[in-house]
TrEMBL record:
Similarity field: Belongs to the CWF19 family.
GO molecular function, one term: RNA lariat debranching enzyme activator activity
Organism lineage: Eukaryota, Metazoa, Chordata, Craniata, Vertebrata
Protein name as annotated: CWF19-like protein 1
One Gene Ontology cellular component annotation held by this UniProt entry: post-mRNA release spliceosomal complex
Amino acid sequence: MGEKPLKILACGDVEGSINAVFNRVRTVQKKSGQFDLLLCVGNFFGSSPEAQAEWQEYKSGAKKAPIHTYILGAASQETTRFFPSADGCELADNITYLGRRGVFSGASGLQIAYVSGREGRQDPTPAHCFSPKDLSQLVEPLISNNQFRGVDILLTSQWPRGVWQYANSPEVNTKFCGTTSISHLAFKLKPRYHFAAVEGVHYERRPYRNHVVLQENTQHVSRFIALATVNNPEKRKYLYAFNIIPMKSMEASELVKQPQDVTENPYRKMVGENTLSDPTEPASQFFFDLGKKQRGGGRGQGGRGRKRPSDGDGQNQGQPWDPDRQTQPSGPCWFCLASPQVEKHLVISIGTHCYLALAKGSLTPRHVLVLPIGHYQSVVELSSEVVKELDRYKMAVRTFYKSKGQRCVLFERNYHSQHLQIQVVPVPEDKCTTEDIKEAFMLQAQEQNMELMEIPQHTDLKQIAPPGTPYFYVELDSGEKLFYRIQKNFPLQFGREVLASEAVLNIPERADWRECKQTPEEEESLSKQLRNDFQPYDFALED
């Protein structure tokens, strides 16, 4: 029989509404049975006379908490007087202050890491704040253990900055929300659950992975949940119930299972580059002094950073990779929009950073290319703003194809190519299923001794293919993604050959684009028709 899971409740800022939260807990327990713990993040105490009177009833023993309750320390100067010690202590029957920072391990083996208060920006650090030293002293003993895989739960009052990257957006002003020191903390401790508060909203992020796909062994996922304030007028969620089996009691195969909606780690780029997302924040880069186990620093810290591959002239050697900087083509480029070589009669739509064009020698009349206006070799070299518009074009073309009863297949070949081209090919829905298309790619790859791998849908290509890596990539209309890291002798027409095959479009004679050339007049006529058809979906006309 398997390990019995623990039943845990997590709560946002109580702010002195102690009766309200415990009454809510009683209601939950009456309906769902007894819970083992209540974990409170944010401000537990309130500063009003009513809140102080309410607390006095529990402190005196007149009232008792209905559950073992563990709270964080003060997150505001006004409530520091409620905490007699920085080391943690029992404040009332069944109500325990965890302490300034540390790790709480229960008899079950459940491991809870915690940091009280807000990030300190003064020296000495105020009582309601934590310092870089606090975080170092929490992290270093844990990660120095070779057996460390992560903690079960992380409790912080403040949010980690950038947690919303690759995921659903919270109802907060992200410009001012959170702190990078908590982001670094979460990245290092790899909590299965991370709870925070103080922003007054409920936000449940999609789970994110703690490993790099295809480069590291699969690890458990992390879930970030922010909780609102107790008794908030908007009725936002402030109490979260969940079951958990301690990590140490789980089979590895169960622990590392990846849910369908898992995303990339939102902090990896921030930690890898050793830069702050917000230049107004203090440089509390405490993790970069943790000795040999720490990875080398990035830009701005004396580290080497990730380098962009040389264009062959040696001028970029030693320069850090900057996604906002375009390379210059080594010769004439047929796809840079400003180039005189571009066949502008093929252009369908022009945005701010990208454009859409009819594919020369197209497989079908609606076969198009999505390309950056500037010179970039692959998707992994694009800046975030270019990626954002590229994704808008992909979505617009998908919607356009859908209206015509066609599936959308995208592929990119970063091999023997100078300028990024996303090939977008429509496949009539009555021709074959998405599964048929996927199988066609997999089978033809096997026949040519290529290991075409399926990667999770929310994978960021930059995590598995750093700039300069040759690769082939397919995205199906279901969101499924296929990836192959090119070794050598990759067939340049592979994507077209698969889609032209009998299993998909059944037009094998059109597998080579050079056999499908049209006169400039025919191309112009086809482009004009496509331009008119695409117009209702062209966001560039609205911007």
